[in-house]
């Protein structure tokens, strides 16, 4: 049974762009100049100052509407739960940064204090993130290697190796914060759009592989020096397999037990998330148990287990970063800043959409920049957010960053009062916690088959980014991933899927003629669509596809016709039957006082047949034209016009039309009358002109030329006055 659908009927004239402009007055709009924008930017009033304050301090907005009785209990519970996770992750991720665990607690505390005031997200948990920790650790190892002398930096004088590494870590973090703050001030938050979800997924998966390999030495309890640079992961695996015979069985068994238990409890948390008011803090529970067992059985002395050791109680005074480290690490600090912001912003966006509030990308850059600079002043390392930690904060009832502030207070309590309890904690436990938290990132490998089936260029981006990041290192891998991603964009725009359209009978809809049955395509008409901008890189491709669509090369046709006319001219000179001055041959045939009926030529003159009389170009998907493309397009249109093919351009963007006018695109051949607002308007106008041309073609002057080209051969050529064109339409 056919579905009854709502019908609509539109009764209006056929419009070209010219006739539409005659019937409808266009609003004249003045675009601001750069000077005008600058003037608005530096002009201040009380309203703008208020808006700026609200934008720079988002806490003012949400704190005024804070529902104390309704939201505070959830924020408190969420803050405690998130704090436990944040403490454990801070301790574990500090190993990735090649720093003592206490600095992970600093990262769980200081950055959150400033994000509370400047951040626009109400749900993300700011603190350590494994990928950033690993990237910072790579810089630390490069400047302060395990073997050999450190880099020649004057600030290293008088410091031991641990202090040198701490100096490098917080200096890199401070520089990272400067980059983020600068990008936020200059409103370049849009830069994150160049990091697609596919690229970020491939990059974080590669980072997870690096993290997994870096933690194997702790899980196995063997001594493997950290390495950086190209193919460092292969060299690290080689050393791990070489020293695997020295595995500490106690470390290995303890790590396996902890990973299995944490993994199973996380499954329970995910499965019963609706029933559990608060997720089970299994990481904290297992850490406490491991500390107790390690202390009770003296794992350090009896089994040679490496433990966290002395924990500094309290906080150190703020210190300035090293400018020399800035100079040495600028190339690494910038991608760290980009990745930190991209991860934080993408997670924040997910929860902003879920809870129906807006976040500001530029303000997030400012917030992360200030947070990292403030934290680095107190020796914390790079901070962003982690999806798992943020999920705990949101699912356990957190409504605002009050929960984040409470989680920071938890880290402060442990640092100031309870840090000594963590001294017997085996580092293998921290390594096991890091590995088990990589599940989400490692499971992203499952995206490869899906991407291959749905979008092969995206799959190439994912695989290219992942492989490059694994083999070349995270910084170079990110650069390679961006290069591959931009190449896919160039590929999509430089080689778009052009199509020939046809009409769906009984409608004003036009679709690819390959996609539907029983479509109507008027004889002698081609409708060509290019679904991309036209610019210097794809104008030649556009012209090639256009020639392929119509089935002939207009320039070749024009040359063949010129050659035929020269033959006619030569024969007439011999017979002296026609004034040779009227047949002087220019580069094209627009100057001669007649046109030839090219469909009726003698056998000894061969000119390829042109089976179309009209070409319609659908520009609905063309968003811009550059100067190079404009010149190429003009040449292509003139080639068709000079072989008597009517050209129509439809659905052209108004700004492109303005550019065509400003660039002197139009002349006595290419006219504004060929532009139409819709494809249907153009087709109806073309059909109307075809009927009129057929009527006028009966009134024509025919001159029959009789000539002997070779011996007794005769040539019969119909010559038509230019003012009375014979279109010979079917």
Automatic annotation (TrEMBL):
Primary site of residence: membrane
Keyword Transcription: no
Membrane topology note: Multi-pass membrane protein
GO cellular component: membrane
Pfam families associated with the record: STAS, Sulfate_transp
UniProt cross-references to Gene3D superfamilies, sorted A to Z: STAS domain
Coiled coil (UniProt feature): none
PROSITE patterns: SLC26A, STAS
Location in or out of the cell: Membrane
Transmembrane annotation, as ranges: 102-119, 126-144, 167-195, 202-220, 240-268, 333-353, 365-385, 405-438, 459-484
Highest rank taxon of the organism: Eukaryota
MF annotations from Gene Ontology: secondary active sulfate transmembrane transporter activity
Keywords associated with the record: Membrane, Transmembrane, Transmembrane helix
Location of the STAS domain: 515-686
PANTHER family: SULFATE TRANSPORTER
Name of the protein: Chloride anion exchanger-like
Higher taxonomy: Eukaryota, Metazoa, Chordata, Craniata, Vertebrata
Chain's gene name: LOC114459220
